[in-house]
Automatic annotation (TrEMBL):
Upper lineage: Bacteria, Bacillati, Bacillota, Bacilli, Lactobacillales
InterPro entries: Heat_shock_Hsp33, Heat_shock_Hsp33_C, Heat_shock_Hsp33_N
Record protein name field: 33 kDa chaperonin
One record GO biological process: protein refolding
Organism: Isobaculum melis
Listed GO CC annotations: cytoplasm
Length: 294
């Protein structure tokens, strides 16, 4: 199954719900960064959360999610947008920890329980929005939920789930976001709380072959879900040799000259996708010439 997200309204508009299968997307991040289990789960959950929040944006709008906890993985940075593409990295890729008391990957231990979750939205026309909340759990699902309630004032339930195989590859990844609209009845809310509490992990359901539609039907009841849109999701980085060249030009002619004299070239690496770019002495001479044109 290729990755996709569904946007739905449920119970005649009382609830908005999103569900996503992001197994390939998170796998791509795991392969590119060669992450170990706890790093994979922490980065993967942040990516799934970002994709779900990104689904509320309009097409060209973009966002960045930063998770900065006091655990061993260090800061996690993930970009998302209204088109369903995402990219991201985690500072320490090689973290694996003993399983937690439930026998699961200890994401809380990896991320840490103190720190913050920040969402920065670029809504075009130089309009930006930024919200920060303290980490309340470190497991990330609760932290994204807390962000939605406190920073965006939308009571929500967010589930983020990544299943890592014994060889560190990703078996399944996905999640859901359920948003309670102002006219939702107490009966609906209570029903959903019960269903969510008894539900297996989304990644296990995806691993068993369930679709995002089936996962939401489990929570809502099949007849209560109306799918509005189905959006493909994928890992995609927009870096290029030209983009890094702009950063090199900004260093100025003297700095570029010393790269030529001392290093006989330059290397750049994209944090988001791990791609390397090489600049030969000739490339650097050209970039130096460009600084002189400015
Ligand atoms: Zn890149």
């Amino acid at each position: 199954m290729s990755d996709y997200l569904i946007k739905t309204v449920c119970f005649e508009g009382q609830i908005r719900a999103y569900a996503v299968c992001a197994t390939e997307t998170v796998s791509e991040a795991q392969r590119r960064h060669d992450t170990w289990s706890a790093s994979s789960a922490a980065l993967g959950r942040t990516m799934v959360g970002t994709v779900l929040l990104g689904a509320t944006l309009k097409g060209d709008d973009k966002m960045t999610v930063k998770v900065e906890g006091n655990g061993p993985v260090g800061p996690i940075i993930v970009d998302g947008n209204g088109k369903g593409t995402t990219k991201g990295y985690i500072t320490n890729t090689k973290v694996s920890l003993p399983p937690n008391e439930l026998g699961k990957i200890d994401v809380k231990g990896a991320v840490g329980t103190e720190g913050s979750l920040t969402v920065i939205k670029d809504l075009g026309l130089k309009d930006t929005f930024s919200g920060t909340v303290p980490l309340i759990s470190g497991e990330l699902g609760e932290d994204f939920t807390y962000y939605m309630a406190n920073s965006e004032q939308v009571p929500s339930a967010i589930g983020l789930s990544v299943l890592v195989d014994t060889d560190d590859s990703i078996k399944a990844a996905g999640g859901f976001m359920i948003q309670v609209m102002p006219d939702a009845t107490n009966e609906t809310i209570t029903l959903l709380e019960e269903k969510i509490a008894e539900m297996p992990l989304v990644s296990s359901l995806l691993d068993d072959g369930e679709s995002p539609e089936q996962i939401l039907a489990r929570i809502m009841g099949e007849d209560n879900v109306k799918v509005l849109e189905k959006m493909p999701i994928k890992f995609e980085c927009d870096c290029s040799k030209e983009r890094f060249a702009t950063a090199i030009i900004a260093l100025g002619a003297d700095e570029i000259q010393s790269m030529i004299d001392e290093d006989h070239g330059a290397e750049a690496e994209c944090h988001f996708c791990g791609k390397h770019y090489h600049y030969s002495e000739a490339d650097l001479e050209e970039l130096k010439a460009e600084t002189l044109l400015k």
